[in-house]
Amino acid sequence: MQKILLLISFLCCFAKNFAQTKPPAIDNKDSTAILQDLMDILGDAKSAGRFISVNLGIGNRIFNVNNNVLNSKLTPVNTIIFSPSLTYHHKSGLYVAGTVNLLNDSKHGFGVNEYSAAAGYELPENTKVDFTIAYTHTFVSDIFSSYASPVHNDLYAAYLYKKTWLRPGLALDFSGGEYGEVKRVRLLYDSINSKLTSFTLVPAVSHEFEWDEIFSKSDGITLTPSLLLNLGKSRQVLHHTTNAPNLLSFLNKKGRLPKLENTKFQPESLGFGLNTSYGTGKFSVEPEMYIDYYLPKTTDNRWTDYFTVTFRYSFQ
After folding, report:
1. Of 31, 188, 255, 298, which is most buried, counting CB atoms within 10 Å of its CB?
2. CA distance 102 to 83
């Protein structure tokens, strides 16, 4: 009976969750990662030796970003994203990775939306603490696409203390990028380019539950719920291009065209993450779910949900 309950809990993590976005400072409608590296740390995904892993992620997050201040301002997309990736881990803790995002674009059909390259370091297995630092660059071919990531550069670091039942963690993230939007009315158009920089600080607590020998002597399940407080600030510089200069000049004189938007350092959202991993031999399945509650004043739905399911096979 216990094994059946564990299996049901594992399968529940595959459930999809949908929500509407809050009125953001960022107009681009996109989805984000849910602190992927932090969740990996909270899940204690480590290896003592060098290996290569082949991964396939399926979910509604459009790009890999560790900045939950942006997560709380963006909404999941209404399409499924397929993200195959390849990662090389060295026994020293260094690693490099490449990821491609595939989706069904309403304009161009199914194909590559963008791709990213990452390099980082994970502290080799330690009974007391975990530490990781990573840099990710995302290559976007069309910044005006509704599916394009507004984050092109991401620097992330996280620390976790493991000796207590509730494990405290802290993550820092610096993000920057560019995105665009075009508004058309008959023959008139207004093009907006936004350059974005953002900083986030994320204290978190988690606990890891483990069960071994579920279906055989070589498998097991790890379940890691975590609670996160997302604090941060962001800055945007907006640039307009239009073929209606008289209208643009009028709006500019009236102060209707924002040139700079700043958000002070403040609590942005509360997050709950659930990271589940089932592994047998060199193969693992890792469903993840993240639920976010937006804290600043808003008239829209404060809840936003993301999900991913990652299939991983490792070659040692």
Report:
1. 31
2. 6
